[in-house]
Records
---
Amino acid sequence: MDAKICIICGLILFFVGFFALLYRKNIIFMMLGIEMMLNAANLVFAAGTQIYHNADGQIMIFFIMAIAACEAAVGLAMLIWLSRNRKIMDTDHLTLLRG
Amino acid sequence: MIMTVTLTILCLLLILCFVTTSIIPTPVGACASLIGGFLLLSFIYGFLGAHFAAVIQIIVYAGAIMVVFVFVVMLLNVPTQDLPKVKISLADILSILLSIPVLILVSIKILNWQAPMIDSQNVEMKDIARKMFIDYLWPFELISFLLLTALVAAITVAHKNKGSRYMLKEGSDHGR
């Protein structure tokens, strides 16, 4: 029962993160939305660990956290580059793909 | 029973924290509310018996990744962001109204699902370590290479190079 509630909670959290990713224009908020979606996936993996009594779910949580760290590092570096060289932080103004 | 009620309250608070993050105008407020959500999430992991995940949720996620976010918000001096104005059409309202019964139906389906009865011991730290360094050794090593690559990429991208031809020219229109 506990694990099922967590699966439903993870479902709702994933869509809250997806909403933040689509709704906000600032890159920082969009990255926070991606973090929320990754955490929703983590919650479902933890629920699966409790249902199946298997360690695989917690190892997946570890891997997803490592990938989230990589994403945060590269994304924030790109954000710093953009705000320093172009003085923009909104995706509305990012109309050029090159450079 | 009391465990289930507590867990439901924690889940509702978690959803509240994440919704606040997605609609609050200030960047620091969004980061703080997300950190609060991560702490609640680590409580939930503890309730589910995933103690390893609960610990690294606090140490790695709330302690390292979110600190980087807050640091970048402070470094770039991000101003308060006005929420984007969206015209709500009839199709939007209809899709929202239709999505609620879908959510309810999926929830009922999940709650009625008979979980398989597995009589084995709860997952301990020992099992995780054994599995990670025997079955998942190659993914583990690949993740370490991925982290190294991300480190090099972040330093290369954020490095200040003055002669770049893509830098903002005087009087240009903010890169449009």
---
Amino acid sequence: MAAIFKREFRAYFHTPLGYVILAVAYFFTGYYFFTYNIYGGTTDFTQLYSLLFSVVLFLIPVLTMRLMSEEKKSRTDQLLLTAPVSRFGIILGKYLSALCVFLIAIAGTLVTAVIASFYGKVDWPCVIGNFLGLFLLGVAQIAICLFLSSITESQVIAAVLGFAVSLFLMLVDAVSYVVRSRVLQNLFEYISFNERYSPFTLGIVELKNVVFFLSVAALFCAFSTAVLEHRRWS
Amino acid sequence: MLEVKGLVKKYGDKTAINGLSFQVAKGEVVGLLGLNGAGKSTTMNCITGYIAPTAGSVTVDGHDLLKEPDKAKRVIGYLPEVFSFYPDMKVYEYLNFVCDLKGVFRNQRQRREHILAVCGRVGLSELTGRMIRNLSKGYKQRVGFAQALIGNPGVLILDEPTVGLDPSQIIEIRQLIRESGKESTIIVSSHILSEIQAICSRIIVIHDGQIAADGPTEQVIREAAGRAELVIRAKGPETRIEKVLSEIPGSPRFVRLPEAEEGTSEYQLTGNGQEDLREAVFQAFAASGLVLLQICSREASLEHTFLHLTGQDSKEAEAAFGKGEQ
């Protein structure tokens, strides 16, 4: 697992992909920090983190699109699948590599908070809560997109599916208002990432929301492992 | 060292391999021979754990591949038919990654020595710092060979290791396989009999997913090629010649060949065993009064032997016969 993690993490920075993702994340962090905090003269980071919610949802499919699909297409998976590494170890190594890059990408928000702290009083529990929320959002979303990458040989299809799922997760709140069925409304509200993320932006860390994001991550990592296992038996 | 028992692999309704069973002893170099689609790669993929068999078991060095996959895979080095590599990696970096993946040589100094030794064996010493994607096909294949050798595995599985290489590269890879055979058990697949003959001490012929022949290389080839073959040319009416041929003791099978001089007919005779047909043919024609212009004994080419081994003894097989010896 560690071998795969190291290879994948390095691979992000052997190609422009890792740098592009970091550049885009830092650009939006810097832009929102300038617009809302510096220009607005406030140390409240709630707005910055709320806006980063949608940026992150569209950045993650790009981060994960090649993880499994490229291996399958180029048949480099033969080396991994014939090595003494479990299927879950392969998935976990790839998952953690993407998560690490994501963590580096959102770490910029903490830097902006440190900068702001030189000029005013920063509500650190709120910032930490926001950061944790954004991180957990990534934890879940990366697992979903990794699964999507594992079911196709095309990076493009993996990315498009990822964007579609991201869009759905963004709009699922609105959908819950238009459906008549109470059961569907409850379902959509339950799976809404926005609903789960919002308390974090207020600095409220609720265990049920933490468990929700971690559960989604575990479930989709298990699905990805099942896809690998299915290919072995089919 | 390796035991395959009742191996079956089905892809939907199609049965790729059907009940393969064989054992390979330590230090043996075994060739898996078969036509394209015979089930060689599927067999190898099952042995390496890349795919799971529908039924049957694979035991490597006492470890069942399904029950103890990690222990079994640790003993295996695998060179797939199409060696794929990560385009962003250099040779040394890639082999270092393979060491990590196989969990061998955790000590950095020992690891470096091992990687350099493997590179030396496959002739990559000067290229350890090069990007794999920039190497020629032959050198890429060497990188594939090197990754299979990482960790000094007890069993080497090589799936068509010389496909697409030029003649000098083929000779080099064959030499590498022979040298590796001194230390490891090797299974090489190929659809080229001459290649298997040059490398392996034993052949397992796979046809339609089943074992068609299994034994020492020379013995299997001799038995397959050992049928008496003659080409004769005689002068006279076709019907009379064929009557004479049908009366030869042992009733050899005969086929009329198209190329013949005017007024003559040419036939190919195939005996049922390994007896020499020449004398019987000569006596029969002498008794009939027909003029026998030529008797030509033919040795079956490797291609013909291969087709015979793989059950393709049809007209294509007849056409694949080698040059005659008069």
